[in-house]
Every structure is written in structure tokens, then in C-alpha cells.
């Protein structure tokens, strides 16, 4: 599948692409939410009013011309007035996403703004978050209050007892901001379920942004034999699968697979994970990178893991909703929930934020045959394994375990598999 160049897609097709992702990700309902784009002519393309978000077609999208003329089979969204107000207030904004995702609605109903310092990339993806007091949906008053927040420089606004609205330089930018903000909200809520969330300081986030190691030198000659191409296809499929299953978001996630000896292939940086294609993936060979490509900023860590652990042939570094609850609270993930969890994971320790930076040894010293995964505080989970599908399975088991524990927190204290039962599992499955 060819990479989607949304900048050359018609606004109708862009909107269908993104509203479909929003709906299928469970971030809006059949009737809720709306998306728009303003084009170079000043015309606003917007989702229609009262049409099923799960089955929208390009022909359903409405255009409101610069002169106010409406063209299309339907009425424009009832929230069109605040879209127009935002575009008038902020000419730099070219796309808007509004919806009622569960976590951000939760924040809106308790009159709070999620603290995006919960994970490192969110501060720069989301920026500051505004807050618009309640007004009647679809009213000019609501549009004015939201526009006032955008005038202050915010690109994302929590709408009191309503939801959220975000703007972007294009629709991909707006969607990434929307998705990342909802992920922050969920992480905080799930973290509060099992403990007390900790937040990164601005200095720690700056350190994260500044720790990008010097790029590896470019190789002069690149080979793409059949087995190398097969690995690219495998990585792409797993990344897309992870995105569809909510195990990876647009703004964060890295997958790599060993190729020959210590050479490997790894996902790039600054590419929306849901749209990564075979030719985006970066080959690392002999300590050099494929020309013209920027590999993940965690490339050094992957390189060292492969160099020091001959039995590890694939790595996934990502943010999943329930494992991140353990990441941000520093609570211990006890995998003695069901036999499968212990067999697949055995132990999942927490390591400090920054342990994944270039030159750090903590993760490299912790990983072993009995410790195939680690949780990096306020950052991510790192899972290793032999075959990539098996590594993804291990990630799924870890996330399901974290979800079960988070859900079970309201029922009572975990009663884990006891030591004798663990030893019996060890002898039968690992002996």
C-alpha cells in the first residue's frame, strides 16, 4: 500500500480518512463530533449534521464557500459556527477536530485540564490546553468563547461539560494532537485507579527532547535482498496492527527486527505510526543508517540490546493505555494474575525515566531471559523476544494483565498465583 500523501488528497477524502480513524478508535459516537478543513480559497469543508459517523462517504461532506454559500446533500455540522470562529481568529489553523472522547469528557465534567507532562512527547504535540466555559452547542456564544481560547495561542481546548476541540496546521496534525491529548487523559485516569500519577518536570521533558543522539553515518551502498524486504513488510503489519488495537498512537512507538548478525531494521521518527510503509523503515547495517532516512531516536538502545543479547531478535517500544498506568505511578505490575501472564513475562520491573537515553546502561543490565520486558517510568514499555509476532503477543499479554489489574482494583486486592504454583509453572513450561 502506498503511503497516503494527505496534502494532495481532496479535503473530502482527508476528512473521511480521519473521521473513520476517530470513530473506529472509539473516540466518538455515531452522532458525535465533527471535522473540518479550510482550503486556500477560504472555503470550509465540514462533516454533515446528523449523518452516521461510521459510514460517511466523501459525497456526504459539505462545503461552506467563503461567501457563505452551502453546497452538499446535507446541512453542515451544527457546530460549524465555532469552526468558522476559530478559523477567523487563527488564520494559521487549517484543520479542526471536535469530538467527545471518554477521558476528555471526564475531565470536562469535573472542570479539569489534563496535565500533558504525564508523558514526554505530549507537551510538544499538544501544547498548552485552554478551557472554554459552557455555552449552548451550536451557538455563536460558544464559538466566541472557544475562539477566545485559540486567540490566546492554545491549539487544544477543553469544552466544559462537552468534550474537546483541537486545531492543526493540517488534519494529520490536528488528529495527532487530539489522539495524544485523549491518551494523556486516559493515562491519568487509569493511573489514579491504581495509585497516584507522577508528572515529568519541564526540565525532564527538555532533556528528553535534547537527548537525540548524533545521527549514525549514512551507508554508501544499500542492499534489499528478499529476506530484508520480508522484514520490512512484517514490521509494517505489526505497527498497523498495534495502532488498530490501541497499542500504539500516532506520536510514539518503535519496532525493530534483527536482520543479519547485529544489523537490523527499525521504524523511523516523525512519521505517523498508522501510516508507516515499507519504504519508511530504516536499515541499520554495520553501525550506519540507510541514506536519507531518520531512524527512531531509540536506535542506540536497540543496537546495544541486539549486540549484547544474541537471543533477542525483535523489540517493541510503545505506550499502551493500561501499562502506562503502571509507568506513571511507579506501581509494580504483578503478572501472577493467570498462568499465561507469568509464563510470558515472569517479571516486569520499572526503571527510571531516562533509562532509555543514549549511553544509559540500566535497561541493558536489567533485560535477561527471565526479564524480557521493562516499564520505563512516565515514558513507555519495552518488550523483547525472538520472532516479532511472539514479541507482539508478549506485549498484548502484558497489556491485558495490566488492564485486568486496573479493572480489578475496584473489586479488592489481588490474590496472586502463589509461590508453589509459580514453581510448578516454571518446571512445566520453562524447565
From TrEMBL:
GO BP: any one term: pentose catabolic process
Pfam families for this protein: Aldolase_II
Listed transmembrane segments: none
GO molecular function: aldehyde-lyase activity; metal ion binding
Keyword terms, alphabetized: Lyase, Metal-binding
Superkingdom of source: Bacteria
CC annotations in GO: cytosol
Domain Class II aldolase/adducin N-terminal: 13-189, 233-406
Listed name of the protein: L-fuculose-phosphate aldolase
The organism of origin for this protein: Tangfeifania diversioriginum
